[in-house]
Amino acid sequence: MKRLRLAMAAATAATLTFFGATTRVDAQAFSNVEVTQEDFVLLAAPGGGLLGRPQFMIIEQKSDAQQCWSESGSNPVQIEPLLLNFDFSGICGRSTDSNGYSIRAGDGDAGSRFNLEIQEEEGEYILVGTPSRFPTNIYRDSPPMRLGRTFGQAENGFTKVFLNPGWRLTRRTLDGRTLGHLYLTHDATLAALVEQNGGPTIENPPVVTDPTPPPSTPTITFRDVTNDVYATQISRAVEIGFIAGFQDGTFRPRTALTREQLVSMVIEALDAQDNISIALPSQVTTAPFNDVASNRWSAAKIQFANQSGIVSGYPEGDFRPAQEVTRAEMMAVVRRAAEYRKRVLGQGTALTPTQGAFAFSDTEGHWAADVISSLSAYCGIATPVNESGSAFVPNSDALRNYAATAVVRLVDCPN
């Protein structure tokens, strides 16, 4: 996933299986790319459950729209996770388990060999890699690898983790495509790292492979989407990075979407596309609409979307950013986004049908009837509510689960 590029105002004009079928990929197919370390903070966070064990978490600052965390003190450094106080979709990233991070050594993906976790030791937290107990894991009897420490425990429980020398963050790639998964990376081989941490010397260690190879993209789960009809698409949407789950481990699939949230999703999704680079001003100097202040978290994206013809305001000059958007209105925005994508790629603006249009039972005479029909024929973006029956229900609220699905279908549409 590309980070949303930020440019100075003067320099710019403007939480499953993916893809339906399960595709298995050897862990060695994964590679990695460097990231800007300062865009991330690693922390030990208060744990949940009966045992209340501390949890390892990584927070990413994706854009400058709003600060995702703050720091105070030293030895230890206390973290205030500010992203808990606003909808951080497209602004912040949050990885809380092995779906979002794993260990990578110089000879490849080591996520099947060692699991990352936080342990308490003499008044501080230690980030360790503990060996998995797979019978085929030749390192299963090794001591935990020490990757970082906190130098104490913060009063609020959120304590910054400092990586030990040699360790850094990178991001996973597959077939040249950057994914959201993060690696705790060391350039030494896994065998060398194990030996450095007091483990056995492994003569001629095998190439690091996963005995149960992962899907082509990491599985992202939320406790409230397991049975959701759009669970697969939600997982894909989070992986692309244009929408995120919440701190409590939920996605809230049936929560209504607002106009500014939809704009944020669409802009982030477009920017994640190959050969599309969206430059947003780091600071908006003039309010794009009467009711969108220049310092609002969504102002830059709303300004860009308006200038690019993806959205428009109301006749009186308002945008109504916090107003819930209907399914019909969402289709209108997605169609304009699809046309924008084709235009910047030099392909005109015509949306060539990829399948037959769906005959909805409740759109005749509706202002968005043609838009909905055309998007049902264009990569199946428009579909009946909850993928059942024949009603589109155009005037009902656009919910997070279908909004994520519609944008995923746009991103993955080949035309």
From TrEMBL:
Start and end residues of each SLH domain: 217-280, 285-348, 355-415
InterPro entries for this protein: Cell_Envelope_Struct_Comp (IPR051465), DUF3747 (IPR022222), SLH_dom (IPR001119)
PROSITE patterns with a match to the protein in the record: SLH (PS51272)
Pfam families linked to this entry: DUF3747, SLH
The protein, known as: DUF3747 domain-containing protein
Phylogenetic classification of the source organism: Bacteria, Bacillati, Cyanobacteriota, Cyanophyceae, Nodosilineales
